[in-house]
Amino acid sequence: MNRAALFVLADGRFPAGGHAHSGGAEPAVAAGRITDAASLERFCRGRLHTAGLVAAGLAAAAADGHDPLALDAAADARTPAPALRTTARKLGRQMMRAARATWPSAALDDLAAARPHGAHQPVVLGLAARAAGLTPLDAAHAAAYEAVSGPATAVVRLLSLDPFDATAVLARLAPDQDRTAAAAVAATRRIPAEGLDALPAASAPLLDITAEQHAAWPVRLFAS
Amino acid sequence: MHRDHALDATFPHRHTYSAAAPTRPDGTRRALRIGLGGPVGTGKTATVAALCRALRDELSLAVVTNDIYTREDAEFLLREAVLPPDRIAAVETGACPHTAIRDDISANLEAVEDLEEHAGPLDLILVESGGDNLTATFSKGLVDAQIFVIDVSGGDDIPRKGGPGITTADLLVVNKTDLAPYVGVDLDTMARDAEAQRGPRPVLFTSLTSEGGVKPVADWTRERLTTWTTAPTT
Ligand SMILES: Nc1nc2c(ncn2[C@@H]2O[C@H](COP(=O)(O)OP(=O)(O)OP(=O)(O)O)[C@@H](O)[C@H]2O)c(=O)[nH]1
Ligand SMILES: [Mg+2]
């Protein structure tokens, strides 16, 4: 195992399409729910403990070697909003392309063949982590970090928020990210006894609703 | 993981992967991809529209647009009906077209591949970048050749300023020559400066408002396509 691979995978410059997505921050900014660093932090904390936790669980389970197609179905079950399913599969397809070029592996090839238009992004992320020789905890960390770094970067562009303040938000959320990743891995340990139902299924109804609305905006900066 | 690694050892070439391979998975030659970049409002969409009109009867074509925050370019092309709707795809760039055409090309590659899959086989795919700055260039993993479009109303010192777009593009187009008298621009100076920056690489002057104004660019595109289709695929 090679820990440095985690930096490659979790880097915001990893070419897997994330830069065009705000993780729900664009509609939150438009609605006046994110106006500054403090409200960005609240938004990110909420996203981390809901969508982020679910993503971390799926990623950890995929990295642990559980069946990616079953995990893909579990991800669908945890993603009720059609707009977010579409986004997750689009980003999953982009992550797949980048991962196969970066860490070629039979498992990635097999999932790409089974889901040519994209599996859910956290599942692909977990499989990519596995192909890179990383652990389930590493995969969960990457998913948790992505859940907050995406919106933070987007808000720097949307509000011209001071980038130092946005980065400080990410640093303040570090203990929460650790706890989220640990909880995700703890859930995957229960899979042998309880099946995939053991994985977290926290939901964020407001993110679901605003994702649907945002997908219908005629003019927007971010794809989601 | 052990199972995969065992397979990897037995079949080391299972995972060959190249974004820019000249063939489709079935071994046939894929479409030539030409990128069009340049500052805002210089005439990229107008060039794409005119190229489509000039070439659509002889070639199978499709277009990918990369708008900054709207689907304006895609919608303009749809409204003008330069191609059927299933030949035009819009990529969303998260406020940053140069990222989507250079640093993280994954969404554009998907759009290109989807077009080939649904509308193909295609001869040519034009990829338009949203208007950006003089440093914006396309990744070689996304396009086979790129056109950089500037216009006379940006001032005749743009070619002299250079930058990766001006110096390295396979073709530099200086558009809106019809406006030169009104903006006090000397086209000869622009041509001289461009040559100094680009050496032997071609520069074409166009006025898309005049009848057949796109012809030089269409001819250049035909030449590229001939080179593409006669090159060996391995
Ligand atoms: N006079 C004149 N106007 C032109 C010419 N070519 C384009 N235009 C006009 O210039 C304006 C901008 O053209 P577009 O083709 O939309 O420019 P663009 O580079 O695609 O712009 P962005 O995508 O917004 O960066 C439009 O109003 C065109 O009609 C030309 O040769 N002469
Ligand atoms: Mg345009």
List the helices and strands and how they pair.
The complex is a heterodimer of chains A (224) and B (234).
Chain A: H1 4-10, H2 25-30, H3 37-63, H4 68-77, H5 82-102, H6 106-114, H7 121-131, H8 136-159, H9 163-172, H10 174-189, H11 191-194, H12 205-215
Chain B: H1 2-10, E1 32-37, H2 44-55, E2 61-67, H3 72-79, E3 88-92, H4 97-103, H5 106-119, E4 124-129, E5 145-151, H6 158-161, H7 164-168, E6 171-175, H8 180-183, H9 187-198, E7 203-205, H10 215-230
Parallel strand pairs in B: 1-4, 1-5, 2-3, 2-4, 5-6, 6-7
The complex binds guanosine-5'-triphosphate and magnesium ion.
CATH architecture of chain A: Orthogonal Bundle
Task: State the separation between the terminal residues of chain B, measured CA to CA.
Answer: 33 Å
Percent in strands of chain A: under 5%
According to DSSP, the number of beta strands of chain B is: 7
Count of helices of chain B? 10
Q: Specify the structural class of chain B.
A: alpha/beta
How does the overall form of chain B come out from the CA principal axes?
A: globular
CATH topology (fold) name of chain A:
Urease accessory protein UreF
User: Biggest chain pair contact, residues each?
Assistant: A-B, 33 and 27 residues
Let me know the CATH homologous superfamily of chain A.
Answer: Urease accessory protein UreF
Average pLDDT number of chain B = 89
SSE-based structural type of chain A: mainly alpha
Any idea what the shape of chain A is? globular
Strand portion of chain B? 15-25%
Could you characterize what this model shows?
The complex is a heterodimer of chains A (about 220) and B (about 230). Chain A has a single domain, classed as Urease accessory protein UreF, CATH 1.10.4190.10. Chain A contains twelve helices and no strands. Chain A has helices at about 5-10, 25-30, 35-65, 70-75, 80-100, 105-115, 120-130, 135-160, 165-170, 175-190, 190-195, 205-215. Chain A starts with a helix and ends in a 9-residue tail after the last helix. Chain B is of the alpha/beta class and about 230 residues long. Chain B has a single domain (about 30-230), classed as Rossmann fold. Residues about 10-20 of chain B have low confidence and may be disordered. The chains are: A mainly alpha (about 220), B alpha/beta (about 230). The interface between A and B is medium-sized, with 33 and 27 residues. Bound molecules: guanosine-5'-triphosphate and magnesium ion. Guanosine-5'-triphosphate (GTP) binds near residues 42, 45 and 176 of chain B.
